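Subject: design request, 208 residues
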């Protein structure tokens, strides 16, 4: 009985139903989900995902300076890059579900809100989160993947650590260095810093 376009209010109200349905459909398999949505919790105790439906999560973050440069190149516009990065237009992103007639509006927020929602201590502890900088996959893939696997084991997911298999995976899927971009002008840096939460930059050890 849902409309083909599921808006954010419906995502909030029926989030538990949606995730329960996904898990039932997967039977006993582990379900891995990728999202750019910010975590949410309402006064009515509705959550992005219920704690008893999740074993763990990885918050993979990236330096906002790199994100800005990437978006500026993508849109060929510094203003469009800022609009997307900080969601100045307060827009949601529509996703077509695979093999489905449904489109779901994703709660994509500004870099500040998105980052703060996932590194929040309560969310981090309740959902057994692990923060990983994307750069770590390129600079030290072995230790980064090993750290992720140990976290899965600590989250009661049955895994056997196999260092040879990790090295083989890296060899077959070599990480490529992140693209380098020209230095920003002082004006652009100032605009970025005026919109970024300095506390978050400090917590994640990012410099602009």
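Subject: RE: design request

Done. Sequence follows.
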């Amino acid at each position: 009985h849902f409309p083909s376009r599921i808006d954010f209010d419906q995502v909030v109200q029926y989030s538990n139903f949606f995730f329960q349905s996904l898990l039932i459909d997967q039977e006993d398999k582990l379900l891995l989900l990728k999202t750019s949505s910010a975590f949410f919790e309402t006064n009515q105790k509705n959550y992005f995902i219920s704690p008893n439906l999740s074993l763990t999560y990885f918050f993979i973050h990236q330096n906002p300076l790199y994100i800005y440069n990437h978006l500026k190149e993508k849109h060929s516009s510094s203003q469009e890059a800022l609009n997307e990065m900080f969601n100045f237009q307060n827009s949601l992103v529509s996703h077509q579900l695979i093999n489905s007639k449904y489109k779901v509006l994703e709660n994509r927020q500004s870099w500040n809100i998105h980052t703060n929602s996932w590194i929040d201590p309560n969310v981090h502890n309740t959902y057994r989160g692990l923060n990983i900088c994307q750069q770590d996959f390129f600079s030290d893939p072995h230790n980064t993947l090993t750290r992720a696997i140990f976290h899965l084991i600590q989250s009661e997911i049955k895994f056997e650590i196999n260092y040879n298999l990790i090295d083989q995976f890296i060899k077959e899927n070599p990480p490529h260095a992140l693209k380098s971009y020209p230095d920003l002008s002082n004006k652009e840096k100032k605009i970025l810093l005026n919109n970024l939460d300095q506390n978050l930059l400090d917590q994640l050890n990012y410099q602009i």
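The CA atoms of residues 24 and 110 lie 32 Å apart.
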